[in-house]
Design goal:
It is a single chain. By secondary structure, the chain is an alpha/beta fold. It folds into 3 domains: 98 residues, no CATH class; 117 residues, Ribonuclease H-like superfamily/Ribonuclease H (Nucleotidyltransferase, domain 5, 2-Layer Sandwich), CATH 3.30.420.10; 124 residues. The strands form 3 sheets. Strands 1, 2, 5, 6 and 7 form a 5-stranded mixed β-sheet that branches. A 5-stranded mixed β-sheet has the order 10-9-8-11-12, with helices on both faces. Helix 2 packs across helix 4, helix 3 crosses helix 4 and helix 16 crosses helix 17. The longest helix is centred in the middle third of the chain and has 22 residues. The two termini are 43 Å apart.
């Protein structure tokens, strides 16, 4: 192969290919030399041509013709004629003391985003720890480069690391920017307090809205550390809480019903919980039949739909508060026993629930992260190294 064309194919501005060899393992070894005889001193930024030491280096580069590729060249140490200090040449295409070109590290990083470390290690013929190290460095740089320092709105949510376990992490995101800000190791109060304390004062003062679920720890820390911010309880979390009461009522009705009625109620869960305007024609017929079978279930469903409409309506917080009070009275008068607990929840969180009507901000972005995080967990390094899992979320959940 023509070495001039091979140099162009290599595409690295600092090197010229002088020879190539096919190795026994089918890889390609490219011998390259420096294009320039000088380097810039990192101390005084003056150009120097006084080389006093050479050291052979072999670094991994991206594959050529589906063959693993390595570059062999002479690493150089210079003596600066201006400040008199020795220095090792810094290269544009290869990190300082790195065994890989920068573009190859980027290639490995992208492969890790779609595959397990073990898979990339096998296909690239690299050690597991080498692949893991490349990913950690690249992910850390990527996360730092796009971090949002002054979000107006933050969402705080908890995510379970393993189903059936009580190990949760706290995910802090910026919904208006559409990215994750940080992932904390647990959901303890002191951990979240430390995160707020580490923020620059301007960043903390810049937070105007904190969107959370009904978690006392999140609320209390936000009130203490960002008192200027308005706390908003996620409307979908409130709705989920109500639906749990509706579903508990459905189960109780079905459990106590006679056999013919029990058969009519069987399999009706999603018809009851689904929003009425999303029902298919056959589901609407099923719902009408359920209304006839169980008047109590009819009341439950109507109360649920009325509550949903309350949050969908364009109105201010004062109007919403009045309507919510009227709704609560109807539940007290005609609602089933299982919904009385929900009234207590509303009373305890009413102020922050009604704040939704000021900003109409929800934890929808934070909740949407769950599906992406589930995919990440399937190919993550494992939960013994939380920092790796954190970096995956920070760089992939955008």
């Amino acid at each position: 192969m023509d070495l001039v064309h091979l140099t162009k194919l290599l595409g690295l501005p600092e090197f010229v290919v002088t020879a190539y060899t096919f190795q026994e393992d089918s890889s390609i070894l490219l011998d390259v030399k420096h294009r320039h005889k000088v380097a810039v001193c990192p101390e005084c930024e003056r150009v120097s041509s006084e080389v006093f030491e050479y050291e052979e280096r072999i670094v991994r580069d991206c594959s050529v013709f589906d063959r693993h590729c390595y570059l062999r060249f002479q690493g150089r140490r210079f003596s600066c004629g201006c400040c008199g200090k020795p220095f090792t040449e810094r290269l544009q295409s290869i990190g300082f003391n790195s065994g890989y070109t920068k573009r190859y590290e980027e290639r490995v990083f992208q492969l890790c985003r779609e595959n397990t470390v073990a898979h990339v290690s096998q296909t690239e013929a690299l050690g597991y720890e080498a692949v893991e190290g490349i990913y950690t460095r690249q992910a850390g740089e990527a996360a730092a480069a796009r971090r949002v320092l002054f979000p107006r709105v933050i969402s705080i949510d908890e995510i379970s690391l393993k189903k059936g376990h009580k190990h949760f992490v706290t995910v802090i995101s910026a919904p208006e920017e559409g990215c994750v800000i940080d992932v904390l190791a647990d959901r303890k109060k002191k951990t979240l307090e430390a995160w707020f304390d580490a923020l620059p004062e301007a960043a903390r003062q810049g937070i105007q809205v904190v969107c959370i679920d009904m978690c006392e720890i999140f609320r209390d820390v936000a009130r203490e550390k960002a008192p200027q911010a308005e706390i908003v309880i996620d409307r979908f979390h409130v709705m989920k809480n109500l639906q749990e009461g509706i579903d508990a009522t459905r189960r109780a009705i079905q459990r106590e019903a006679e056999e013919p009625q029990r058969q009519d109620l069987k399999g009706c869960r999603w018809v009851i919980l689904k929003s009425k305007d999303s029902l298919k024609p056959e589901e609407e017929e099923r719902l009408a039949h359920l209304y006839e079978v169980s008047p109590e279930l009819k009341v439950c469903h109507e109360l649920k739909e009325e509550f949903r409409s309350l949050f969908n309506a364009e109105q201010d917080a004062e109007t919403a508060s009045q309507k919510l009070s009227a709704w609560e009275e109807r539940v007290k008068e005609s609602g089933p026993e299982k919904l009385q607990k929900f009234l207590t929840t509303l009373a305890n969180w009413r102020e922050w629930i009604l704040n939704y009507f000021h900003e109409r901000i929800t934890n929808g972005f934070a909740e949407g992260l769950n599906n992406r995080i589930k995919l990440i967990k399937r190919r993550a390094f494992g939960y013994t190294n939380l920092e790796h899992f954190r970096l995956r979320i920070l760089t992939e959940c955008v």
